[in-house]
Amino acid sequence: MATGKQTTIALEKGWGSKAGRNPLRKLWKYRALWILALPGMLLLLVNNYLPMFGIFLAFKDLNFAKGIWGSAWNGLDNFKFMFTTNDIWYTIGHTIGYNLVFLVVNTVLSVLAALLLNEVKNRAMSKFYQSTMLLPHFISMVVVAYLVFGFLNPDLGFINKSVLEPLGREGISWYMEPQYWPSILTVVNIWKSVGFGSIIYLATIVGIDKEYYEAAMLDGAGKWKQMTKITLPFLVPVIIILTLLAIGRIFSADFGLFYQVTMNSGMLKSTTEVIDTYVYNALLVSGDTNLASAAGLLQSVVGFVLIVSVNWIVKRISSDKGLF
Amino acid sequence: MLDNNRTHPVITIVFILSSLACLIPFWLILMVSLSGQNALAKYGYSFWPRQFDLVAYRFLAHDAEPILRSFGVSIVVTAIGTVLSLLITSALAYSLSRHDFPYRGAISLFVLVTMLFGGGLLPWYLVYTKFLHLQNTLLALIVPGLLGAFNVFIMRTYFTTSIPPSLIDSAQIDGASEYRTYFNVILPLSLPVLATIGLFTIVGYWNDWFTSLVFISSDKLYNLQYFLYNTLMNAQYLQTVADKAHIDTSSMQVQPLEELRMAMAIIAVLPVALVFPFLQKYFVKGLTIGAVKG
């Protein structure tokens, strides 16, 4: 009896077929696909998985002379120390604050730009505007730092020398005065990312079925009504998804922006330090590996929790739009 | 009522201003690089210099070797990195796209996890320096950018949606091996997605300065962006250029350090500015493929 039952199950699952009789055979049959997948998997293993196993370093008193394994465990001391410093609190505050401001400003301006771009009737001009506004997205942050320096260079920069001086005002030592930097960084971020954002929204607008507009026009809806009653509702799901994804990344910053554009100036840290620059400076400038690993782990864990919960929310809103 | 085929003048003005805002910073540094040094010292940076002078570019031509070398490093890294990256990414994505591949779910998860969790900068740094010992090698500039999980998923989606499985079957009935199918059937049919991801990868490698900052300390291996970064942060290189060009330092003449700086930025922007108009439409297509899935 028992053996008969097993055979039926086996047959149902296809275990009797030639390729599947033995797991090793199945592995062998698809060896070519394995070999194609292998280089990529090895890269991920080295570049992404090995560092994951390194998170335990946050619980060690790392000493390069003793080596990674020889260094003593020190429990939560790295975290205790980190949270007793003032820096970490304002650093976390900046990271979240800048990200929220960037998110709101970029979304509003990108959607606005996309709506207006859609009203540009001349195709050639529309392409031209898109190109010029997209250009900053493809310029490295190093060059962006040069461009900003062109305006803010304390001795010769355009603003001090050609704007403030003719007005009879004293020049500002921009790279030493932290209070201006939240605005400067926001402007630079807008300059660099709004063109990119608007094209993503424009792609959605272009995809809207023209029949909606034709029907609306027959009913006497003007441009404004069409925009608020048709275009915007179509954009809302995209806005929600992109916003949620940005919230999932709220604990990490654009390192290039905060490091290059500020020239990593120590004088500006009280308004420009974010977790990414904090970890970098702790690790490669002051050599404080304990602080760097504790802050790094905090960032990884919070980032993970945020991304997974955001994905859960996205899936609840629209099941097919999840990240995974 | 306004003519429906004409753009509203306010919109035209808004976009002309935005386009100008995007271009003006480049114009400013171009003009600084073309300024005469005395005028610059007197009047500062301006959009229309009072005195044009190519002195900065003459100076750079004088000691072009470090710049050319960093250009070379960037070109080699970008070329090798992009080709390798496309091969590795598409090969992995192709395996994942095959519905009959028994372990595709597990491997997908393996790829996905890297998008969710990372070890942070310190462990990553230690893997490359203490474990692989790649510091101060070209490989340190190439390997970190080779594979992004997101690109794998974009390519997998392309393969599953744009290449009919029957095509793969018929190729294999005709006797093509898996590798032949991949190289001679799949890749030629996937040029749009390869071009898209390829362009992003090129831009990524070309604009990268971070891996140089972290892993490279030998000035022979500086890539262009890192070389620029160094020049902005300290004027040492500029000083040597100026000294080598036998400036008469006894006179009151100011050395053209600022023009030199901006001339270097212009030289670095030039390739992107020249290529960008031709590639722009692919970028836009790629952005929309990459950004809005489904």
UniProtKB/TrEMBL annotation, chain B:
| InterPro entries in the record | MetI-like, MetI-like_sf
ABC transmembrane type-1 domain sequence ranges: 71-279
Quote the cellular component terms of the Gene Ontology held in the record. Answer: plasma membrane
CDD domains associated with the record: TM_PBP2
Cell compartment(s), UniProt: Cell membrane
Q: What is the name of the protein in this document?
A: Carbohydrate ABC transporter permease
SUPFAM superfamilies, sorted = MetI-like
> Is Iron-sulfur given among the entry's keywords?
no
> Which keywords are on file for this protein?
Cell membrane, Membrane, Transmembrane, Transmembrane helix, Transport
Q: How does it sit in the membrane?
A: Multi-pass membrane protein
Q: Per the UniProt record, which residue ranges are transmembrane?
A: 12-34, 71-94, 106-126, 138-161, 182-206, 260-279
The similarity comment for this entry is:
Belongs to the binding-protein-dependent transport system permease family.
Q: Which GO terms describe its biological process?
A: transmembrane transport
Lineage top rank: taxon: Bacteria
Q: Organism source for this protein?
A: Paenibacillus rhizovicinus
